[in-house]
Amino acid sequence: MNNLASNFEKDGVLVLPRVLSNTRLKEVMKSCEDTLPNIVGSRNLLSFNWATILAEELKAHPRISSILGPSSKVIQCNYFSKSADNNWYVTLHRDLSIPVAEKIESEHWSGWSIKEGQLYAQPPRRVLESLVAIRIHFEDNDESNGALQVVQGSHKPNSENKDTMVCRVEAGGAVVISPLILHKSSKLKSGSRRVLHFVFGPHHLPDGASWPNADHTNQ
């Protein structure tokens, strides 16, 4: 296992500088602004071709591919935009729900809900352990503009670490996290914070469950 993959497995978080060049970041920001004008957030960005293309680029990135492995596929892309007018605090939590095509009858699945017209559920832990989230930042991010804060190692059962790490990252950089890690973010003190949050996972789900939008998730 290479150092990046080993560190991610141990800590559940990595900060990667300069994943996107300035030119590519500007292109992505323009695509996002054109398709999501004045939108605070969305969970359904994989319906846009530019988002699936970017997901493929991320999967092929040398530092990211070493973490994801060859069998991962993109299964979700969210957009979050904090500003002075749309400012919120996110309490410490884990991301336990995933999008699915349809409801199944299984004791291993729970927490069924609808978000933005999409069905979500909480899968078995082994599914959550296989997921990796890649957060691409549109601007420099630190304590002043709501940087993500995580408890390193808390993606593992029985972790006793309680210390919070601030994920400071520059524009065009990425924060890579396990959805099982405890994480939160504060309100902005200044500036703005825009993030594309991609989730990658296995091609197949257990118990007869399946991912939605299969034609968008084969990267």
Write structural notes for this entry.
This protein has 219 residues and is of the alpha+beta class. It has a single domain, classed as Sandwich (Jelly Rolls), CATH 2.60.120. Helix content is 21%, strand content 28%. The protein is built from 5 helices and 13 strands. A 6-stranded antiparallel sheet has the order 1-11-8-13-3-2. Strands 4-12-9-10 form a 4-stranded antiparallel sheet, with no helix packed on it. Strand 6 and strand 7 (118-122) form a beta hairpin. It is globular, with a radius of gyration of 17 Å. The two termini are 23 Å apart. The model has no long low-confidence stretch (mean pLDDT 93).
Helix content: 10-25%
Sketch the topology as an H/E string, one letter per element: HEHEHHEEEEEHEEEEEE
Strands in their spatial order, largest beta sheet: 1-11-8-13-3-2
Distance between the termini: 23 Å
Q: Total strand count, please?
A: 13
Tally of structural domains: 1
